[in-house]
Amino acid sequence: MENDPSEIMNLSGSWRIRKAADDAETVYISEKFGVRSLHIGSDTVQSAMRISAPNDLEISYTRTMMGFLLFLEKPQNIQSVLMVGLGGGSVGKFIYYRMPWTKIRVIEINERVLTVARRYFAVPENDERFEVIISDGAEFVSRPKVCTDLLVVDGYDGESLVEALATPQFYRDCHDRLNKGGMLVVNLWGGDRQFNDTVKRIEAAFPDGTLCLPAERPGNIIVFGFRSKPAKQEWQELWRRATALEKDYGLAFPRFVEGLRKMNKYDSKELLF
User: Fold this and answer.
1) How many alpha carbons lie under 13 Å from residue 114 in its C-beta half-sphere?
2) Is the per-residue pLDDT at 108 higher than 50?
3) Of all helices (H) and strands (E), which one includes residue 239?
4) Residues 268/228/247/37 CA torsion (nearest 10 deg)
5) From the candidates 149, 154, 157, 173, which is the catalytic residue?
6) Distance of alpha carbon 103 from alpha carbon 131, whole angstroms
7) pLDDT over 80 at 73, yes or no
């Protein structure tokens, strides 16, 4: 996207927006109070970045997606990450800078998203650890030779979850692409009329266990799928991990532990799968 000054307008000195065309795939940005936001085909905020802290996680659902760390014996168990959907690159950047032992591939179908993400959202260029591939995410995940330890799916357009990223076959493919002990992380919108059906499809594809974790701000719900049957998740151990992870990553992992009680089976001792 060309940075054409004629397309930028200022409103009250605190807001500026790149005007959108009528095209549903239009990619544009806005800025308000030091936060830059990405929009794809609508006014919905797809991603956001605080300009003074470009590698932090500004939106609550992106922070919640990092909850997968609670279920690892150690973060270094994640060596490879495959992401479907780039957006502004928030989660990819966070993992890139805060988990330097990982290799990350991001599959993005819209080349304009990549152009804007690199120009306005500080997404790094491809290197030996980080690569953005322009391709169809569902098709890429269907390839038998693809494998990863962590598969992160955030596939909303301006209106709803992309259909190809919500089918039973897609989630079966996600399961098959994961290495032993690997995890799926999916961002869903609780108000989506297909939400319950989508969760059931993930549960069917991941019979060894799934969990739902609502984001701090109501709306987004993160679903975790386990490639292998997880070890017992006792509350005492989860709280211990949460305290350590909060110190290491600066995210509210204790709140995530409390949030796990909202949509999952549990007793006084542990989460139940």
Assistant:
1) 16
2) yes
3) helix 235-249
4) -110
5) 154
6) 8
7) yes
Give the Cα-Cα-Cα angle 18, 132, 58 (nearest 5 degrees): 55
Q: How many CB atoms lie within 10 A of CB 216?
A: 14
Provide the pLDDT confidence category of residue 8 given band limits of 50, 70 and 90.
Answer: very low
Q: Six-digit token pair at 189?
A: 């919108």
**Is 154 in the active site?**
yes
The per-residue DSSP string of 74-104 comes to: SGGG--EEEEE--TT-HHHHHHHHH-TT-EE
203 strand-pairing partners: none
| Residue 189 C-alpha from the chain's centroid | 12
Mean pLDDT, the chain, rounded, equals 90
By C-alpha distance, which of 32, 41, 83 is closest to 62? 83
H or E element at residue 154:
none
pTM of the predicted structure, to 2 decimals = 0.90
